[in-house]
Protein 1
Amino acid sequence: MSVKKATFILNPISGINRRPSRIIFWIEKHWGNRGIELEILKTGHRGHGTELARKAAREGADLVVAAGGDGTINEVGQGLIGTETALGIIPAGSGNGFARNLHIPLKQEAAIANLRNPRLKKIDVGKINDRYFFNIAGSGIDAKVSLEFDRSQRRGFFSYLVLSTRELFRYRNQRVTIKLPDRVLRREPLLLSFANLPEFGNRATIAPGARPDDGLLDICILNPISPLKLLRNLPLIFSGRIDHLAEMEIYRANKVTISRPQSAPIHTDGDPHLECGQLEVELLPEHLTIALPHPVRSEIGKKRWFSI
């Protein structure tokens, strides 16, 4: 891909290493004075990334780059859905699940340099009611943890782990009806996730078989389990073997309806929202173009969730 016009959108308060000045320095180092029309913007409020990305695409940007965590990537990506403008990623969040899933370098300067000559890939987009997601959405304990994490002033994996452990002993499972194309399930899940990609972030893997270009979501149901048993089995989550847990069910579908007794939190790529009891979840095939690095020789043959 030959980039002639690029817009970089930075979230200045994303993640634990809040250093937008360093990111701007690296952008200018690798992109400045190269005959490229370059724009560097910062978000100022929730939803601003979508506005800026939509405007950049409308004005002919070949590439719009999100610098931030999964929430920032979600915001910026929403402005590019259905366009030919590619989404680039500079990981600057707490978990960086989207970047990890797509094998984008976590070193920010390397991610910026690799975007100079990216390869393009169209990926699927998830939608839950009117909200889009690219990685994972959920309506169980993960949504409650996302809500508490959003309210907290603390960031980073340790803070997320502390909140998750606390919620394990507090969360009350909600009885739901899950309507898949070929069956109806009635469950009382601890966790109910809709995965377009395998990993939440920090290597916590909920859907080992999920991939972003197969036209299907992985519907992940973790049935009631004691907090102590789940904590004992944490290695299964971080080794990509959670599907070995007896309480775990995973189904694959392009559409699913969730009926809940009342409104409750959901999350889309880690961002929490209050949603009504009825959730319509669907997959939109190849609705977003992603700018990816070319694999280097040392990475060829390396074990990964999938190759893209």
Note: The longest strand covers residues 278-292.
Protein 2
Amino acid sequence: MLSTKTQTLITVAETRNFTKAAEILCLTQPAVSHHISQLEEELGVFLFIRKKNGLELTPEGEAAVKCAKRMGVLYNKLIKEISDIEQQPTKLSIGITHTAESNLTTEVLARCSSNADGLSIMIITDTIKNLYARLGDYELDLAIVESNGCPDPFSSLVLNTDFLVCVMSSEHPFANNAMITLDELKKEPLILRLPTSATRVQFDQELRNLNDTPDNYNIIIEVDNIATIKDLVKKNLGLSVLPRSACLKEIKKGNLIALPIENLSMVRETRLVYNKDFSRKDVLQAITATYRETLGKYSS
């Protein structure tokens, strides 16, 4: 359980006011002020700057609050794990990127949850940067991301080696081609993901490596939702550049055609990322095995 002083620190940081924090904590205002003074004395730093419009965290205060919140998350995680041990079921929070949301990843997690007795999974979709931050703060148990490598302090398993392709409707004139050139791509309307997405960053970087730029292409729509992009492409409203794994179902049904782009090498890995102290190796085994089994079903 978090100490009273730590809870006070978090509440004061959220309200930026001793009186409001006291009301929330059911304490007196002097008691709240005393808790903060005690913490400042113990740490040897000032945590707040008193200003006319309220309290402002110092850099040291920002660091203290971040650690205090992490302690709260870890404590809740401890309670959950103890409960799981006693009751057998396992509840996991798994973060996935928007790309993973649109490929077979959600199906894999659903199959794992269905096949394992008492396994419950909460899926949280976010950017890869935010997923790593939440994983580091133990707000997530696992993350499934598209990344060629794994940052410290995490461990990871490669689930699949994927690559970006040019995706088009089966009705497009290029649908029977074996590949597409950049010159051909420049003449087509493009429906791409947002510039901040990992898919777009990789595509843009590949162009820059060839002294090219996205400005030379006819980008008519930028949207982060991959399902929307695929729907527009299927209606032959434009071409897109997407991970092949995000289009496996549509490719198998013949609704979409995926072609390699000449001179672009856009290989990427799908990774299962976790903290080094993650103890459920059986869960890692189950997700890895189910992913490969499901991938094989759509690839055959």
Note: The mean pLDDT is 89.
